[in-house]
Amino acid sequence: MSVFHHLPLGRRIPDRLHAVSVSLPTMRDLIGYEEKDPAVTRHIGSGYPRFVLHPRLRQLTEHLTRQHGLAGRTLWLTTSERSAAELTAHLASSAHSHGTAITPFATNPSSGSVRPGSPLAGPLGLHGASHPENPELAGEAKSFLQHTGMFLGSRQAEDILVQLGVLPAAEPEPLFVGDASAEIKRVLRCALPATGDADLFHACSGMNAIYTTFRAVTELQAARDRTIWVQLGWLYRDTISLLKRFTPDPACDYVHLYGVSDQAALERLFAEHGGRIAGIFAETPTNPLIQTPDVPALAGLARRHGARLILDPSIASLFCVDVLAYADVVVNSLTKFAASDGDIMAGLVAVNPAGPDAAALRGAIAQKLEPVYPRDLARLAAEIGGYEDFMAGLNAATLRIVSFLEAHRKVKRVYWPLSPESRANYLRIARAPGTVGGMLSFTLKTPLAEFYDAVRLPKGPSFGMKNSLISPFIYIAHYDLVKNAAGRAELAANGIDPELLRLSIGSEPVEDIIAALAEALG
User: Where do the DSSP E strands lie in 327-377?
Assistant: First the structure.
């Protein structure tokens, strides 16, 4: 009997309080979610935390709004006093502010305490920003926090609600006992043996790792009159938004090279502007086309011209590709694969200790990163010990699933690390020929909705957890582009089919995953 069955709309994936995914079981549900149809959104209690405010965060925000007389104002809670100040300044400069009073928010809810004996006992300060109710300004605030990864976390919100007496207790879950940070770094150094503890930094989310690194490199290079940033290929949506939004002068300093393997275009760009290029951002491989650039050649070009190279191997994982020697900084979402239970937001910044700016980058990154809440670290440390073994299982499963899909008459194309277009490039950084990770994408010769509605795999955002996840990724990540002709033309220019499906393989029996795909394909 299959382990898979259809999950109802709004069911958390996995089915626990701090889950990072949510079930969107039909194309109608998914489109309704994107278009904010109340018939759909009323079922969505939680979702990916940078996009959907967690119920505990909403509950805490509502409680504080009442307690602090903020009726008629919108309150946003952030990871720290520094992030609250950044949000306040950003909103004050927004075109939507029109002189609106944007005010910082701070409190120290020390009237209660966590359960006796808890390592988390003690006062938990809160910071944020508020503004008069205004849909445009609220959208700007949410977008800023989403792109920078600075939302207050759900576990911290839960613990504060307990302190305040609003909740009787936090939901029990396995936590690491001991030095959680040391345990996490111990496992990560197995994949990054050239690093020491001083080179590895915890981030409260993968996007905060990217944002912090981008800012650190930008400031360092600006002193050298280098302001141009190069986006190589099609990246994850929020990384694209971050580069477009925070590059010093996006109209002049943001460059998007479409082809990840177009070394000639890179050479021309550096020949013309090499002295002004601050950095290159690339995914190894990319999301969702699973394409890999020629990383050694890219690194050589960047080093010759004084540009800094940031690489993100989140799609494949640190245990499948080895890229630190080529990068100045590696950024990684530990929400994916490392936190395989699918219930933590966390990120990593790894500075290449042999890089020319290693010391300066270590200092800047340490100063700018947002803190990780202790219970999140303890939860990650409780999961991360299985990271390497989890990836080994996914490597084997992916090979079998790709073989099935490539042979199926209704599958148009499969994208995976060893696709012919960039196979050679991937093998240059793969730890072994078979370390292909647990992610692939594919397109169909039949209607997308027909397959998506029928497939019994879990359906929702995110990837890299023990639960398999399938999604029409472009509809979830770039619905604004899917729904109009200009957007579809932009996707086409990047070689992206809007009907593409992204499959994150889980730890379920591979026979059941293949059977679920076969059943829906017919």
Answer: 329-333, 347-351
